[in-house]
Design a protein that fits this description.
10 helices, mainly alpha, 243 residues
């Protein structure tokens, strides 16, 4: 298990379970149809727990380019490893959502709502206003990365073996993502992760999905740029507070 493979597998599991719950809630004829926002946010938090648990001991389990960039800006991660990590995260997200498509393929065929189908793959705004949409993604990612800086001392005792996101425990990060979804996710669907959105959006564009409609490329830059900006702001603030 290399760091590259750990990031790929961890992100794959994150997307398989995270996008999987969206499919379960939104697609026609599933057991979880119309289960609601609480189910989605809870499963996303648990999906983070799963991904971090698997990848943590080998890569630090960033699973998110915004986290990788934020840690690098703060001097907690080598810049030479940023691009390989991001590549692994995008590949993992793409593979993960393709598995969701295979898992729910019968329900994709029964769903005639292009918006619901697109939502299984990527995020979209509740109200399309690019200024407020990118502000939402910046704020959500800022909270994610800024809080991560303050829980990086988590250790297992008595051996004091570091766990999780660069020694962040899997459970604290899962709870953090859960509360971000519950509190801040109602505007854009809280991508807060460029690979989580762009990788699956590419998959939506190329997979043979009935009734899928467009991939909404005019919006695609927001869940990529917004989280990166939020992570950078979190890192700069952290550095100013710890000079």
């Amino acid at each position: 298990m290399s760091p590259f493979l750990a990031e790929l597998l961890g992100t794959m599991l994150l997307i398989l379970l995270g996008n999987g719950v969206v499919a379960n809630v939104l697609l026609t004829g599933t057991k979880g149809n119309n289960a609601g926002w609480l189910v989605i946010t809870t499963a996303w938090g648990l999906a983070v727990f799963v991904g971090v648990t698997v990848a943590g001991p080998y890569s630090g389990a960033h699973l998110n380019p915004a986290v990788t960039v934020g840690l690098a800006i703060a001097g907690k991660f080598a810049w030479s490893n940023v691009l390989p990590y991001i590549l692994a995260q995008f590949l993992g997200a793409f593979i993960g959502v393709c598995l969701v498509w295979l898992m729910y393929i019968d329900h994709f065929r029964r769903t005639d709502n292009p918006g619901a189908i697109l939502s299984v793959f990527c995020t979209g705004p509740a109200v399309r206003n690019y200024f407020s949409n990118i502000a939402s993604e910046i704020i959500g990612a800022f909270v994610l990365v800024f809080v991560v800086f303050y829980i990086t001392g988590a250790e297992l005792t008595p051996t004091k073996t570091p766990i999780g996101l660069g020694s962040v425990g899997a459970l604290p990060v899962a709870l953090l993502v859960w509360v971000i979804g519950l509190s801040l996710g109602g505007t854009t669907g809280y991508a807060i992760n460029p690979s989580r959105d762009l990788g699956p959006r590419i998959a939506h564009a190329i997979l043979p999905i009935k009734n899928k409609g467009t991939s909404d490329w005019p919006y695609a830059w927001i869940p990529v740029i917004g989280p990166i900006l939020g992570a950078a702001l979190a890192a700069f603030l952290y550095l100013q507070l710890h000079v």
